[in-house]
Amino acid sequence: MAMKKFIYPLFALLLLLVLACKKQNEIYPDLSLLEPYQNQSFDFGDTIFIKLTCTNCEGLPEVHLLYGATIVGLSKYIATGNDGSLNFQIILNEPNLQSGQYTVRAIGYNGANSSADFQNINYKALERELVGISLLSGSSGSTTIGQFNFGSPIVYQALGYKARLLSSNSRQKTLVSASASTGMLLGLSQGDLTQKYQLPNPSLPGLGQYQVLFSHDDLVFVFQYDGEVLAINGAGQTQRSYSLPQNKIAVCASMGDAGMLVGSKEEVGQNYMLHLLNPQNGFVVKQVAIPGQALSMCYVGSHLYHLLYKKAGNMYLAEYNSESNKFTTITNIGNEKANVIVGLGQAKSIIATENKILVYDPQQTTMPTELYGFGATDVQYNTLNQDLYLAIGTQVLVGKLGAVPNQIINAADSIFKIALVYNY
User: pLDDT band for position 402 (50/70/90)?
Assistant: First the structure.
């Protein structure tokens, strides 16, 4: 009997505790997103000021900017208002965000329970535009790098060594040059050419130069003589690295929808290859032997690459289909030195030789046709307005395809590399 008197109160106490815990577990945050307003409009560079209330919240709510279901922006907590509201901000300074409708989402938590509120906003992205041109010029001695921003005088800086490679990465706001002999890699700020970083000569014997240098998205890809590939950021730090197949040395490369195509030669021997790489990990997706050494290549869309290769003193135009892994020689363009091939999109390309400039449009003709009766050391194509930039002697000319180009730069020395500089 005494035992029952003890058990009944204990059972009642346990029942009260269970009910209390259950009631506590049923408490959800009460969250309300007050600002921004539904369908409020913002432009690149604006700040979204976010105001919300949240009762029964443990800690601060999480506030994100979403594009669809993907988080594309993180918020920063500012302060608690006099009315008890919580204030956050998201700065719209990411140039890669496209125009469209985005969602501001706030989530409050109470233990395992959560509540969310949403507001849609309309965003107008930064329009991409060409803001300048960078160049490498010089003779047999040291090289000078130049930066020409439209509306401003050109800025020059002597590099103190002979550089042969140049890349402009507008997302990094960086110009990168590499030496032909010392193995020096230099990163400079676009605009004033102040030094951002300097990578020394690779330590292994024989690595006296970098082979290929090009930009893609927010990385610069650097191909070393030993076959190692570095992807470096705007601070000169290696984000990832991998190696080409054994005993292969890169001679040219281009990025396309299916991956990164690399033309290689053997360290010893006369075998030449194309390797289609996954740029994230360097995995060889496909590869094919080619009859000569690739000199220059470009992506022209729809899984197609155009390239120039050299065999027995002659220059050839060829096509590579990354979908079928098929290599096709199109034509022999003669024994005149071919300097560069540049993609125009829609399966078209421009070829610059020592004495003429050709255009290849397979929709119009089966062979390349002469566009200009003079050559160029380098060519760049602005896809935004279809302007063609030509490096000829000490000058840079610009014009539409087939039109008479106009001079925009006249340097003191011969120009052998140019790169287009965009606002992002």
Answer: confident
